[in-house]
Amino acid sequence: MNNNKNGGAVIWADMDGALAFSTVASNGGAGASYQSPANIMGAYQRLRISPDGKVQIGRGLTSASPHYANYKLAVDGKLVAQSVYVMSATDWADFVFEPTYRLMPLPELERYLQLNKHLPTIPSAGEVQANGIDVGTMQARLLQQLEELTLRVIELDKQNQRLQAEITALAAKK
Asked: Domain spans of the chain?
């Protein structure tokens, strides 16, 4: 095992599941190269811990992978957890309840939806496919949409109550 605190490590596997472990000493940069163990033909990396502290899990990851290179943890495949906490500086959506907040008028929202095929503040399917999403930011944006819908429902309920009162008053006059 490499005890160099600036080193990295890789767990290799072949198609039959044979595993090997290799380490590398480095000056801490991201440019360390890991050589496939000679005893494993067609080996691919299963787990990489880079000298700069980045962890990559899965077959298709390399330090040159554009979607994974800038992250401390990258997983090529599905990820499951019992709980995930996203610590983010993203503004939470409570601003929707401020008296100065203006809901987009429904006719304007309808035009936006017809033109863009997605809600305001929510990325399009193409954007998500190309760039992925930041889970913390998306949660805040979805909450904003939910809070806006809640305000619209409250307003519709008030309008419904006024109309019911008018109907009751008209019926009493008969």
From this structure: 8-75, 93-173
